[in-house]
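Our collaborator T.R. sent over the components below with a one-line note: 'Predict the complex.' Nothing else. No constraints on interfaces, no templates requested, no preferences about which chain binds where. So this is a plain run: every listed entity goes in together, and whatever single assembly comes back becomes the starting point for the next discussion.
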Amino acid sequence: MLPLRIAIRFLKSGRGQTALIIFGIAIAVSVQIFVGLLIIGLQLSLIDSTIGNKPQITIRSSGDINTIKDWDTIISKIQEINGLKEISVTATGNALVPDGNITLPILVQGFDFQSADQIYGISDSIYKGERMKSLKQVLIGRDLAEELEADIGGKLPILTPEGGVNIFEIAGFYDLGVGSINKSWVITNLTTSQRLFGYGDRISEIIMTVDQNRLFDADKIALQVERIVGDKDIEVTNWKDQNEELLSGLEGQSISSGVIQGVVLASVVVAISSVLSITVLQKSRQLGILKAMGIADRDASLIFVFQGLIIGLIGAVVGVALGLGLLYAFNTFTASPDGGALIDLYIDYNFIIRSWVIAVASSTVAGLIPARRSLKLNPVEVIREG
Amino acid sequence: MITLELAGVNKIYSGAYEHQVLFDINLSFESKTCSAVVGESGSGKSTLMNIMGILDTPTSGEVIIDGMAVSKMSKKQMAEVRNKTIGFVFQFHYLLPEFTVLENVLIPHLIHDKNKSKQTIDRARNLLDMVGISKLENKMTTQISGGEQQRTAIARALMNNPKIILADEPTGNLDSVTTQNVCGLFSEIKRQFGTTFIVVTHDRTVASHTDRTIEVSDGRVISDRLNKDA
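Returned assembly:
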């Protein structure tokens, strides 16, 4: 195709100018990739630390009795909802454990272990001992274990608000990564907790997670849950309602990232347009003679569109590589106080592809402005000027 | 058979003030002839050539090329006629410096047909051979002499086997020996391809090599005669 061939030759003939403009695009794209991925990584690690390994939607009773009776009916109704991932139940109650002369407040968390494990990752968090195998066994957190100076296989007396004392065996220690949980949660089987607090077959909460790609739809899914349950004594909460500050922070980050990327993109378009417009002047002799020889206006314009496309393609590839390099360098040379990476790297391929496509498309569009200028070029003027 | 005809052509440039460059030009050019349009600088001969080559349009009057009235052509049709029916040779040759000699010759073909067959390349090579620069085909046009560049431009003008070749001061930048060679080349091309040549020149020696001399002064044809010696 002649316009493409001419575009390539024009670019090759002005090597310095071409290299400069490609370098400009590469820098812009690398900034986009670097800033974009850094902010995505930051947001994901913030989200992960806030809602990772935790339920994202919770159903609890808002009535006089703080337990739910027909929970299995509710689960069978809601489990078909699109976007819900794991569903589990807990029977929770406040209690105390004696520690010498004092008592420590604890929260007994009775789990349906298998499904709750999918949400909290309990099995993976057990660093000593093993999961409970009988109704008389419990798991305690790192902080509580240290405070009680407990041992695996040791006894743990639990005092209920009703005044009962139940002795349990410590099957293992867990560390869920949150100090307050490690200090207060005593994990038991669902039935154990139900018996301890006299719930019968009632439970305290139905806990759920949503699909990873629908994390930000948790409020909509929660609304669906509420509608399907249709009980005024049932309250449905979701992580978004409970973390409004985090969300507005994330939104602020997204907006500032978008603004940076938008400004960078706009400057790229302006730069490419102006450089290619200069090319129209530089190559006016060639364009004039091509027009005299009968090249169609459309093909003459295509030369500049192709130039935009080619420099966009190359510049964006170099830019993506440069951006990723910057990100790895940033990750390598900056470290948090504990020696780990400051921000977890997250390579979002969709974001990279989207940035690349936008850069190439913008560069091509930038070629349209000089293309329009080339339409106005009159071969007679070029020939007359010699 | 008439290949190119101008009927009552006037050209007025309008701007801050109106300026008429051509006055009621009536000319016709038979096929397989070689004509010279001579005149002093500013006589209007280049404007006449631009109008004949449909690079420019007359203010009034009609240009008929190969039986088709230019005024009835769309922009696209005009570009097509410039590509297939007319070959241009300019004083400053206007080769594309980004391309080799052979590629420059191929460009008129590539404008209307993106494929270059072996036949097409052979034709370009034959033309380079005919103008005597076949050894330079892979050289960039900036690496060859002025005479060689003009020969390349002539080969390029012939690439699509046009019916008309319009040459504007084709020897303006060449020495007398090269000028003689180029004139000889035009005669040879006319004989071989039956091309109609219209050469715009201020050089009477070049004009004397043609079949007919048309003299233009102040935008008017003041004489139109056949050359006996041609």
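Summary for T.R.: The first strand of chain B starts at residue 2 and ends at 13.
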